Amino acid sequence: MDLEKARQTAKALVAQMTAEEKMSQLLFEAPAIERLGIREYNWWNEACHGVARAGVATVFPQSIAMAASFDAPLVGEIAAAIAEEGRAKYNKSVAFGDRGIYKGLTYWAPNINIFRDPRWGRGQETCGEDPFLTATVAKAYIQGLQGDGEFFKATACAKHFAGHSGPEGKRHGFNAEISKKDMAETYLPAFKKAVEAGVAGVMGAYNRTNGEPCCASPTLMEILRKQWGFEGYFVSDCGAIADIFHGHHVANSLEEAAAMALKAGCELNCGDAFRALTEAYEEDLVTEEEITAAAERLFTIRAKLGEFEEKRPFADTPLSAVSSKEHKALSLKMAEESVVLLENKNGFLPLDPRKAQTIAVVGPNAMSRTVLEGNYHGHADEYITVADGIRRAFPQSRILVADGCAVFEGPYWDGFNDLQSEGAAAAAEADVTVLCLGLDRNIEGEELGFSNDFTEHGDRKTMRLPACQMKLAEAVCDVCENVIVVVLCGSCADLGEKVRSRAKAVLHGWYPGAMGGLAIANVLSGAVSPSGRLPITFYRDDNTLPPMENYDMQGRTYRYLQEAPLYPFGYGLSYTAFVYGAPTLVAKADDKVTVSVTVKNTGDRAGREVVQCYAQFSDSRTVTPHCQLCAVESVVLQAGEEKDVTLTVAPFWLQTVLSDGTRTRPDSGVTLFVGGGQPAPDAAGISLS
In CATH, what number is assigned to the domain containing residue 450? Predict the structure, then answer.
């Protein structure tokens, strides 16, 4: 069904409804209209990294981990797998008469807000700090989830539009003040590219942006609808329309808040504020034409999903698709590609799995299933923790396991809070200790209902790990010479110089999904050579970060950071070595620039290399980023093998942004650099001037 036919189906259905029936359909819990044969439909569903909150499903690595792979095609494969599982679960839900929450096909993902501040608890749901990487991963996810057939297999929804990335504790009344330059250069590009990718939905943010509530913002809607031509549906974040009245105080009543949102272009309310539309309609705050237009947009999406077809599309998708072997294999592959090797002193890793030795697996995340899941998760039918994975990968070794401490020191009464001596004892007996530190969604996440010394409603107060973990780490390093630190969390983590200098290796594994423990073990054993790259900057010191409430990009991310980072965006080590030839310009045209580079694996084992292309701008009219990622390609090379890698750069990413938000060609040219990370000061580039 093409879009125009879906629109006609929607118009025909909506034309038969009363005004009250139309308004009822603008709530996420849309009731049935039996006289028209319309079933109830619940729009709210989640699929950030797998079908969430609806029972068993494949739990893929969290979004920030998928971004760390720099592998958009693999993200697309995973999104297609999520859609398949979603259809299978939907088919069975419908068969058993269950059309409740988290059972529909309209997924409110991906989260493409820019992870501009590493303390933000929801940053784990994003694709990192870079506009290009975020846009590229988002496009792959959207197109993989929605498919390219006659009907949508499922629908994606880009969120949260726009200018949202903390603070969590203030979001219901917070005003993000953002310059036109930063909006156009940093906060909006991924949304523009999502629209170009055909995303079915866009979700508005809780906050105000430059004084306007995002779910009732004429400025944002003008950009989305008029400038970009978005034809899908717009949904509020959950409770955000009520916030217009209760939190932002820019409406005098709930009826006025509902009217503001609808008139601006918000068709769907997650929450119940749109129940006030009845009164707003009676008070002439909204017109029936506006209500009709909103209902037609929503029913266009439902028609494109095939809901009103005599034979429902994808009805033969079997339940066996859910958590299948193939999907678990995809999850494992992504987890392996997402692991970032930060330190490997004197080539300490990989460990030899054939060697009989004693390995201690110590730390609060050694046996944790919670840390594998992240937030916005489903439930896997099988979990492999780090300890489980190490047992599988090192069958010749004696494996000791100990908690050592809790993730965070709190009012625990279950005996797992202070076990430092147990952790140290295990490490003292070991030839090698794998120290599993980090966080989980109970301390880092979305608007957690508490604050303490470490977290402020889910936002971190520091890049350092909780004190109990740092004490454990130091104790383990005191008794074991060979310590490998594995950090599992959604952002950067500063281990401190004392631990970092003593650890033989440091891996960052994010929230790696249900198969994540095996992925970590496969990297440790050398079955997989690490190839993940940092999708965010690891800052050296908390004090270098501007306040979270400050949305100015100066001093933030690799593009505008003034100090040297602990580890830069795009960084990651391998077990092999890659050498680059000089990049060459293949073609330059108005629609794209093509460059080529020869990459050779000069090491003794196979590996995947993430080839990165950065642009540096020279423009006398504006402040430009230090550099800007503008193309990425992955290449797998055997030992001694070399290949020519071609990268294509779209002109959008070769533009600079002026103070008024205008995107334009730099007045003094662009230089492209190609390599395994950000360009070194003496790197040879390709001038496009």
Answer: 3.40.50.1700
